[in-house]
TrEMBL record:
Its EC number is 1.11.1.6. The chain holds residues 25 to 561 of 714 of the full protein. One of its GO terms (cellular component) is cytosol. There is a cross-link at residues 339-362 (3'-histidyl-3-tyrosine (His-Tyr)). GO terms for molecular function: catalase activity; heme binding; metal ion binding. Heme binds at residues 72, 112, 161, 358, 362, 369. GO terms for biological process: hydrogen peroxide catabolic process; response to oxidative stress. The lineage of its organism: Bacteria, Bacillati, Actinomycetota, Actinomycetes, Micrococcales. This is Catalase. Keywords: Heme, Hydrogen peroxide, Iron, Metal-binding, Oxidoreductase, Peroxidase. Residues 28-416 form the Catalase core domain. Decomposes hydrogen peroxide into water and oxygen; serves to protect cells from the toxic effects of hydrogen peroxide. It catalyses: 2 H2O2 = O2 + 2 H2O.
Length: 537
């Protein structure tokens, strides 16, 4: 104000009063300019036109206009929390990852749970797969285990992912259904994609309507590798086991809860953490070598298959505790960027073709979602260990590197020389021998689409089986096309008679001829025999 005198009282046209701030913070513009009135735009006369000169109003509205960023193309609806991962097993014999080098080591963690299909504003208790993405801020960089609450996936090859997601999301003409798999496009796609049948069994089971995020398992899904200091590799699968146990609601409850409280799951997590009832999960691994993997009747590189825990028991290696809610949903949960490609030395990829596609997809999509390659500098994404490289500039660059050198190799000395790659501490890919023809092919070992679906069905209690039958009946009952329903029944006949007959009766349809399997499934065997065949071939 003129002469540096403090601003006096300002009365707005709505009658609100702005007074000098005696204590607390003064409201400023984004440039830090203190503002005397944030509720009345600058006018020529009490009832006159608003002036373009009003930088405070223009800046406020300009920023508001750009508040939204694109929601995630999948897993748009999510909820996050902070926590700690404590290592409980020394795995240095099989991995050189520092996180597993010492029992008792604590690592900061951030987790985002999500649904897959629904938009950001959809409801929590849709029948859907749940995302279970964990960021571990290790001393050797961020390690993301970007998993789901179901151990298998719909497709074997990432090139199908855009089709899968187009089919499961709302239909493009009518823009519904918004958050359900109960529609023609999804089941039409599945009926032509038999590899998806196994995952739909899980999706139609009670696992897809969890009681809360706290009562879910999590799975890394793919086979990964551990690599030790000697360069030796073992295959590994990651599992999160809730110490709270597993619980689901039933469909009837899910429908009512969605209506009464669409935020049921996020409220549950917030309430649990803020009242000190911290949810915990054990991280367990299944570890096996290449020779053992060869014995299975399925391929460990096929993400539509799981490795039965009876064949490769789980070994608990750490515990995750979520003990802090976010300060700000946008800054943390919305801006967090998980990526399957974020792995520390000692962890490596297998040749799962779905995983390789994901390793491209996450970084790529995050550029359009977060708008700049510098999203790694956002507090939620920034590693907690030192970062030193020659990546420079770009939109929203916040780092201020000093000195003359921004390239390597360079001939400078001392600290001027900048960082250098280190063959001892640095990440080295597992040196896997590779041979074969370059071609668009899929291995014959990926061809059995029904055996594990059947094993899952028979592993369920009669009540749970009944829920699966009812879920298929409900979901397929929403399909307008009898051909889609019929094709789905033809697949279900290859899974289990009780399932196919139950769903056909529910739909009031005759049973068609079973679908021709790509490879003869092991469906006629009782589960124990099937397991031994899986193991012994
Ligand atoms: C997001 C899991 C397959 C592309 C996510 C998220 C999870 C997840 C948990 C949410 C991350 C978050 O909370 O921010 C999985 C699992 C898969 C799978 C377990 C299979 C095993 C794929 C495939 C692709 C893909 C095959 C593409 C080829 C994406 C994209 C996002 C996403 C683009 C949005 C990421 C973002 O905007 O930050 N996925 N996904 N996913 N996934 Fe996947």
């Amino acid at each position: 104000t003129a002469g540096g005198t403090p601003p006096g009282e300002v009365v707005g046209s709505g009658g609100e009063v702005h007074q000098p701030v005696e204590d607390g913070q003064v409201l400023t513009s984004a440039q830090g300019i203190p503002l005397a009135d944030d509720q009345n735009s600058l006018r020529a006369g009490e009832r006159g036109p608003t002036l373009l000169e009003d930088f405070a109003m223009r800046e406020k509205i300009f920023h508001f206009d750009h508040e939204r960023i694109p929601e995630r193309v999948v897993h748009a609806r999510g909820y996050g929390a902070h926590g700690t991962f404590e290592t409980t097993a020394d795995l240095s014999a099989i991995t050189r990852a520092a996180i597993f080098s010492k029992v008792g080591r604590k690592t900061e963690a951030f987790v985002r749970f999500s649904t897959v299909a629904g938009a950001k504003g959809s409801f929590d208790l849709a029948r859907d797969v749940r995302g279970f993405a964990v960021k571990l801020y290790t001393t050797e960089g961020n390690w993301d285990i970007v998993g789901n609450n179901i151990p298998v996936f719909f497709i074997q090859d990432a090139i199908k992912f855009p089709d899968l997601v187009h089919a499961v999301k709302e239909e493009p003409d009518r823009a519904f259904p918004q958050a359900q798999s109960a529609h023609d496009n999804f089941w039409d796609f599945v009926s032509f994609t038999p590899e998806a049948i196994h995952m739909t069994l899980w999706q139609m089971s009670d696992r897809a309507i969890p009681r809360s995020f706290r009562f879910m398992e999590g799975f890394g899904v793919h086979t990964f590798r551990f690599v030790n200091a000697g360069g030796e590799s073992t295959f590994v699968k990651f599992h999160w086991k809730p110490l709270q146990g597993m619980q689901s609601v039933v469909w009837n409850e899910a429908v009512k809860i969605n209506g009464a409280d669409p935020d049921f799951h996020r409220r549950d997590l917030w309430d649990a953490i803020t009242t000190g009832d911290f949810p915990q999960w054990d991280l367990a691994v299944q570890v096996f070598d290449e020779e053992f993997a060869q014995e299975f009747d399925f391929d460990v590189l096929d993400a539509t298959k799981l490795i039965p825990e009876e064949l490769v028991p789980l070994q608990v290696v750490g515990r995750l505790t979520l003990d802090r809610v976010v300060d700000n949903d946008f800054a943390e949960t919305e801006q967090v960027a998980f990526h399957t490609g974020n792995i520390p030395p000692g962890v490596d990829f297998s040749n799962d073709p779905l995983l390789h596609g994901r390793n491209f997809s996450y970084l790529d999509t995050q550029l359009s979602r977060l708008g700049t390659p510098n999203f790694t500098q956002l507090p939620i994404n920034a590693p907690r260990c030192p970062v030193a490289h020659f990546q420079r500039d770009g939109q929203m660059q916040t780092a201020v590197p000093t000195g003359r050198v921004n390239y390597e190799p360079n001939g400078f000395g001392g600290s001027e020389r900048g960082p250098r790659a280190d063959t001892r501490a640095g990440f080295q890919s597992y040196a896997e021998p590779i041979e074969g023809l370059k071609a668009r092919v899929r291995s014959e070992t990926f061809a059995d689409h029904y055996s594990q679906a059947r094993q899952f069905f028979v592993s369920q209690t009669p009540v749970e089986q009944d829920h699966i039958v009812k879920a298929y009946t409900f979901e397929l009952g929403k399909c307008e096309s009898p051909q889609v329903r019929s094709r789905m029944l033809a697949h279900l006949m290859n899974v289990h008679d009780d399932l196919a007959v139950g769903v056909a009766e529910g739909l009031g349809m005759p049973l068609p001829e079973p679908a021709t399997p790509a490879r003869q499934p092991i469906t006629d065997l009782p589960p124990s025999d099937a397991l031994s065949i899986l193991k012994n071939g």
